[in-house]
Amino acid sequence: MGSAADWNSIREKVIARVDSSAEDLNKISQEIWSNPELNFEEHHAHKILTDYLVKEGFKVEKKFIIDTGFRATYGSDGGVNVCVICEYDALPDIGHACGHNLIAECGIGAGIAIKAGLEILGEQAGKVTVMGTPAEEGGGGKNVMIDAKAFEGVDVAMMAHGCPFYAPRPKFLAIQQIKITFTGKSAHAAAFPWEGRNALDAAVMCYQAISVLRQQMKPDWRVHGIFTNGGVKPNIIPEEAELFYYMRAPTKVELDVLIQKVLGCIDGAAKATSCEAKHKFEVNYLDVVTNKGLISIYEKHAQNLGVTFETNPSIRDAAVGSTDMGNVSYVVPSIHPMFDINTVAPNHSREFTADAGAPTAQEPTLTQAKALALTGLELLMPGNKQLLDDIRKEFDETFGKSK
Asked: Is the whole-model pTM more than 0.90?
């Protein structure tokens, strides 16, 4: 690291930059919270966030890869490129029940704070990238951006996510969505039932087979689904029926095993009912692989800012869902800490929606912005090349040629 005096000056600048912008950041968060938009439809949030970054002196690429995506940069090529990620889509009916308004606020706050540090270090030190990634809630926006090479040239990627507790190394499950269609033959259900092949029976049998399969599932595997089509009228034997399932497991390797078991249930139900079965894999999220070297830097700065991490393993180590940030963690060293927004409500509840828009969520969100900014700036400091080398080495050893 550079001299202690240099670092202390940058640390003070970062903290002051976030604090002086607190009112603006809260307005951004409130505007997004008050106008929830579903995945790929976040046009209002996109405008608010990109307009602010332009005002703050970033080079902003609007409609980056996706109409509601963006990339904002400050600094120069050739040095370290620190990426901070924003999410800003909401859930149907219950709005920002996952607090993406706060994720966006935190990402923007961290971005402008890293920029403030770079103004001291000089642009030659590297670059900060603020990446706007739409459609995390089931749309896989980050996957689309990964496929378009959005993260090429990025050295580390960071974001922070609100919840009811502090967990720097949360467990996110890999997930595969699957749509299942059974096709049979229609017939009059009263007059000529023997002429039909009941696709709904196939779907029900598939559902039951998957439910029976749960006895042989590992405790941290998850399979949950719904019927999306069960026929048109009771007196017509359904010629088509559909199911929509999510399959989850702690790692991609385990998920692949689980998928094969579910495919067996589909095939068995089709054979038993003389129906045809087709399946289509939809969005796929990988498990989040937290880079230990990078998260250790974050933990140090968060604790110095007064954060106390959850120590109860039943809370700290519990699976907290799935996210396309997992896919990012497979292509670039990444962290995705969870932070307490002063709530006891679980994510994806109406109560959490209310708390994500409450004044009490502001202080922890701004603290996270400072922690992420300090984490990124430590990697940008002259003389800290070994830190990034160690982070890259860990990443390469984790993924090898599959990264």
From this structure: yes
